[in-house]
Amino acid sequence: MVLRTASLSILACCLLQAQSTIGFAKRGAKTKAPAPSPLAEIPPPPLCAAGGPLGAVQLRVRAPGDSVTLPFRTINHLSEGDTVLYKPILRPHEKRRGEVSLVLIPSRRSRRNGEVIITDPKPARKPQQWKIPRTITLAALVYGPSGLSKKKVKHFLAKDDLLIAQLADYAARTEQTEALLQTLETANSSSASVNAALSGFASQYGLAVTLDKNAPPAAQAETLFSTMNPQLATYNPLAPSSGSRVGQTASLATAAAGLFFGNPVGLAAGGTAMLLDLRAIAFPDTQFRSSFAQVLPRRHALNLCGQSGAVPPHTRIAYIWATRIPNTPRPDIQIGADSFIPAGRNSPVPVSVPSREWKYLERARHWSLDNGNTKTRVRVLKLGNQGALEIDLASAQLPPGDYHLSGYWDWEPFTATGEVHVRLIGALAKARLQPASQDRLLAHTGKIAATLTGADFEFTTQAQLQEAHNEFAVPQKLRFLLPKGLRAGPQHHMDVQIDTAHLNPGKYDLLLSQGAGPPQAIPIKILAPAPSIDNLPILANQGASAQHYVLQGKHLDRLSRMKAPDAMLRLGDASPDHTQRNLTVQLKPGIKPDHTFPVKLYFRDRVEPVVLPDALRIIGPLPRIASARLSPPQGLDVALNPGEAPAGIFLTAVLDVKNIRPRSVLRLECASEIGPRPKLHIGEQTSKYSLQQLSQDQLFLSLDTSDFPAGCSLQALIDNDGRGRSRPFTLAHLIRLPRIETFQADKAADANGLRSYTLTGYDLEMIGEAGWAADKGMQVADLPAPIPGEGQKQILHIGLPTPPGAKAPLFIWLRGETTGRATTILGPASAPGERAAASQPSVPKNAFRPPVLLPPVLQAPMPPAPSVTPSAAAAAKLAAPIANSLPLPVQMP
Fold it and tell me: Tell me, what DSSP letter sits at residue 442?
C-alpha cells in the first residue's frame, strides 16, 4: 500500500510543465475553439512518472456495421474495414497544435502492397478517423507538435526490415512499462499483481529476477531495480520515516520510465537505450522520441508521456506510441482445480490457456462471474509469472456460490471452462491445536508436527510463531501443509511444523494469515519437559488398605494426578528438588498377587494422559510384626518403667512376625530418625547384632544398644526384599540409668534431721532428686564430681533425712521425672545421732551383681548360625530363661 501511495505522489512530483499547445476536448466538441467543459468532463492534471505530458486522447476502434467502439489500446483484431477513431481531450482554454499520423504494419506484407502503411498527417486539434485497408499486426500513433513530413517515406520504408523489428520490440516494452505503472497506481492492487507486473517488466530487458511472492511489493521492487541497476540498491522500503519511503519509491517509478526512455542511467545488464532513431529513415529532419500511455480515471482516456530534452536546431520532434495487434482467436480458458476463492479478497485462480492466447489475455474485457441468477462485473488481472488470473472481489459484493467466468474478446463473448467457487473466509481465530499436538510441544526438543482444527484453513497463506505478551518478539515463519492445497476446497485441519529447540516454556501466539488480511492469533503453549519416574513398577501388597510408596525421578512436581484400575492413587508432596514424591496406594478388596495394571499419568498443562503399561504390580501381603517380648538384663540398680530399656547394654527379644520371606531384612532405627540404622538379615550374627529365626513366625533378636542415643524410641520394621515393608514396631524407649557402686553415710543428722550421704558410680548426673519414698524426694543440689584417675567414675553428695526403718530402699528421680524409681540401695541401720563408720559401706561393693547379665545362650562365645531352623525343643530351651524374666508390655500394631 505504501508503494502504491508513494507512486502516485512521485508521479505528481515528476510533473513537467505542460506545453501550452497541448490540450483535450470533450466528446462532441466543435473542432474550432473548444468551449469550456463541465466539471465532470474536465480531465485531471496530466501526470507522468518520467518525461513530460504530451496530452490526453481517446483512441478507439469501430467495426463495420457496429456502433460500439472499443479501446484501441486493448484491441485484439484490426482488420480491413475497421475504423480507428482519434479524439483529443482538451482542458479549458487549451489548444492542441501539430499533427498526428498512424504507422501500420500489415500482418502479411508484400513489396507490391508495401511493408509499412503511413497515413497522411492530420491536425491533432480535431477528431480524426482512419479506415483500415488491411489486417494489421502492429500500429503506432505519431504526434508531431510542430507538424510531420511524409516525403520519400513509402519508397524507403519498403526496404527496411530493421524498422519493423524495432517497432515490434518497442511496442512490447511499451506494453510492459504501462502495465507496471498502472499496477503501481491502482489503489487495490495485490502483491501478486505487483509481482507479475514487475516480472513482466524485467523480462523485457532480458533479466530473470526471482521475486519472493510473500514479500511486500516494496521489497519486490527493491529486488527488481537493484538487480537492473546497482545505483538503486540503496533503496530501503523499511525506512523509518514516511518521507524517506516516498522519496525512495520516487526513484523506482522514475527509474522504470527512465529505462524505457533510454535514460543515461541505462541498464546494468548490458542492454541498449530505448531509442528509435528514424530521422533519416521515415521522416527526414525529424527526431523521434519514445512515449508511453497512462490510463486516466476518465473512461478509455490515455495520457501520453513523452521523452523530454533539448531540441537540436532545424529539427522537428515527433513522439511515437506503439502497440501490437495480436489477431488471435478468443481464448480457450480452462480453470484449474484450485479455484476456491474467498469473498471480499483479491485471489488468483489457476488457468490453462494456449500460449499465444495467454500472451495477450490481459486484452480481454468486461469480465463477469455468473451463478445462473445474477451476473456481476469483476476486475480480472493476468498473473503472467503464476499462470493464473487474479479475480478482484474486494470491490464486488458476491455471495458464496459457484460461478462461471466470462468476458469479451473485442466484440465476441467467451466463457471459461470450469467453475470458480466463492466461499466465505474462515474464522481462524476459532482454530485450536489438537490436544495430542499441544501435548507434544515440549521445550528444547526439536521439530514437532502439530495439527490445527476448528476452522476452514483452505485460504491460509502464511503461518508464524510469536511469543505472547512480548512487544519486542519477532514472528518466525513456520512451514505448514494443507491436506488438499491452497484454495483447493474446504479443509478443516492443517499441519504446522514448530521447532522448539530454542523455545523456552511459556505462552505463544500462532499467527495465521489468509492473503493480504491481518493475521489471526491462536494461543498455544510450549510446555516444560514431562516428568519421568525411575522406580517403576509401583509395588502394592495384597490385603493392605493404604500403602505408602515414594516415586523417584525428575520434575515430579508437574504430575497432577495418577489413575489405575482397581486402585486409588493419591499423590503427596514432592521433595524440594522435585526428584521424589510421596504416593499412597489403596487397593480394592479381592485383588490377587502377581497381577499388573496400567497407570495413567496426568501432567500439568497437558490434556491427554500418558499411559504406562504394567506400572502397578500386586505382590504378596505386607510383612507384619505382631508382638515382641523383650528381656531386660538382671541386676539393675534402678527400676525400669514399662516400655523402657537401659541404653548402652545388650537387649534380647522374641518377635512374633507374619508374611516374612527368606530374604527379609529387619531394620532398626530411632523414631526421631537419629542414630544408626542397621539392617539385619535372617541368620546374620555380628559382635553387636544377631537375628535368628526360631520358627516360621518367630525371630530372636539380640542387639547392643551402645550405638543408639539415650531417649531413642527404638523401632523395628521388616522389609521383604523390596516387596513391601511392615509398619514400624516400637521395641522399647532407651534411657540412660545411673550405676551406683557405693552409698555411704558421712555424719550424723544435723539440727534439721538431715544427714549427708555420698554416692559413687557412673552417670550420676541423671539423678535430680532422692528420698526414702516414691512420692517424697529431696532435690539434689550438687553436681557429681569426677574421681581423679578413675575415668568416667563420679562422686555425688546428697542430703537425706534419717531412713524410716532398717534397710529402707533408696528412691531416685531422674531429671525431669515426677515419680521416684526404686533402687537396690538400702539405707544404713543406725540410731538417730549415731556416727556411722565411714569405712564400712551400708552395702558391700562385692554384693552388687554385674550391670549386664545375658541369657546362658549368649554368655559363652556363640558358634556360627545354623543353616536350618532350630527344632522346637531347642527353641523352647532358648526361650525358657526369657519367658521366666519380667516381661515388658507388648505393643500391638
Answer: B
The side-by-side arrangement of strands in the sheet containing 567-574 is: 532-533, 547-554, 580-587, 567-574
Q: At what angle do helices 217-228 and 2-13 cross, to 10 degrees?
A: 50
Whether 498 has a pLDDT exceeding 60, the answer reads: yes
pLDDT tens-digit series, residues 649-675: 888 999 999 989 889 999 999 999 898
pTM: 0.58
Q: What distance lies between CA 561 and its chain's CA centroid?
A: 25
The residues facing 715 across adjacent strands are: 669, 730
Asked if omega into 106 is within 30° of 0 (cis), the reply is no
Q: Over range 736-755, report the average pLDDT.
A: 84
Residue 777 CA to residue 771 CA, distance in Å, equals 4
Cα distance between residue 465 and residue 531, in whole Å: 26
- Under a CB-based contact definition with an 8 Å cutoff, are residues 164 and 122 in contact? no
**Residue 686's pLDDT is what?**
92
**Cα four-point dihedral sign 394, 397, 401, 406:** negative
27 phi, psi to nearest 5 deg: -60, 135
The amino acid occupying position 670 is C
Q: What is the dihedral of CA 873, 877, 879, 885, to 10 degrees?
A: 150
Q: What is the pLDDT of residue 876?
A: 41
In this structure, is the dihedral angle defined by the CA atoms of residues 836, 840, 845 and 846, taken in order, positive or negative?
A: negative
C-alpha cell belonging to residue 133: 485497408
pLDDT digits (tens, 9 = 90+) for 239-293: 344 344 334 334 444 555 555 665 433 322 222 222 333 333 334 466 777 788 8
CA end-to-end span of the chain: 84
Determine the distance from the C-alpha atom of residue 682 to the mean position of all C-alpha atoms in its chain, rounded to a whole number. Answer: 58
Burial 429-459 (b: 16+ CB within 10 A, else e): eebbbbeebbbbbbbebeebebebebbbbbb
Distance CA(812)–CA(822), nearest Å, equals 7
For residue 840, the tally of other CB atoms under 10 A from its CB is: 10
**Cα gap 247→267, rounded to integer Å:** 21
Give the C-alpha separation, 283 to 289, whole Å. Answer: 12
C-alpha cell at 488: 483447493
CA gap 186, 217 in Å, rounded: 13
Residue 789 neighbours by CB under 8 Å, 6+ apart? none
pLDDT band at 477; cut points 50, 70, 90? very high
Measure the CA–CA gap between 100 and 319, rounded to whole angstroms: 10
Measured CA to CA, the distance from residue 639 to residue 740 in angstroms comes to 13
How many whole angstroms from its chain centre is CA 662? 55
